[in-house]
Amino acid sequence: EAGVAQSPRYKIIEKRQSVAFWCNPISGHATLYWYQQILGQGPKLLIQFQNNGVVDDSQLPKDRFSAERLKGVDSTLKIQPAKLEDSAVYLCASSPGTGNTGELFFGEGSRLTVL
Amino acid sequence: GENVEQHPSTLSVQEGDSAVIKCTYSDSASNYFPWYKQELGKRPQLIIDIRSNVGEKKDQRIAVTLNKTAKHFSLHITETQPEDSAVYFCAASKGSNYQLIWGAGTKLIIKP
To answer: Labelling A105: which of A25, A31, B42, B77 has CA 20 to 30 A away?
Structure first.
């Protein structure tokens, strides 16, 4: 079974530039999560989708971050304009959905450096 | 809102000894408590989880205990091995949407 795919793995941009990350979850997984993990910290949930609907985006800085999951499959996370404090690893995860074991399957992450 | 505190932030143990990592949570309605292991530069992976209707769960060398009254849960690793070196995260959630609140992580170092 293919895992969660993310791209790009690494991205370096200057502040005020924009960047987009892509995630393809495990086939059949209804729930998709985007997390931000700053070095030395635990993952922080940015947004959670159930199919193509948003379950929780309360911690998404909506003035600069946006995410979509068209057709309820893959997803993109965009940052525009980027700030220095956005330097982090952006982790995408998926799970089968409600009623499952609760296990999240993570991708390898996209490491963003903002200069 | 829910808050999860994790201690210690770093734990160094001799190979073969046991390691214990503790987490406390604030929301008494939390009912699902997973533990994830993240090796350096790798993705987090679930190693064990427990639900609020049980007090302990074991899987080979790892175990998790839950004290609902005190609102804390712990990860126990026995007979530690070099491959146990990693950052361990606890988390808590309630309801059916599995919106996890994560601890800050514990860096476990296994000394040879």
So the answer is: B77
Report chain B (112 residues): mean pLDDT per 10 consecutive residues.
91 98 95 94 93 92 96 97 97 81 95 93
For residue A81, whether the previous peptide bond is cis, meaning omega lies within 30 degrees of 0, is yes
Q: What pLDDT digit, counting tens, does each position of A67-78 carry?
A: 999 888 999 999
- CB < 8 Å to B93, chain A: 102
> Nearest-CA residue of chain A relative to B102?
A42
The torsion of the CA quartet A107, B91, A113, A4, rounded to 10 degrees, works out to: 10
**Residues of B numbered 42-71 whose beta carbons fall under 8 angstroms of chain A's beta carbons: which are they?**
42-46, 49
B23: Cβ contacts below 8 Å, ≥ 6 apart: B4, B5, B6, B7, B33, B72, B73, B74, B75, B90, B92, B103
Residue B2: how many other CB atoms lie within 10 Å: 16
| Whether residue A99 has pLDDT greater than 70 | no
Contact flag A50-B97 (C-beta cutoff 8 Å): yes
Cα–Cα dist A67/A93, whole Å: 14
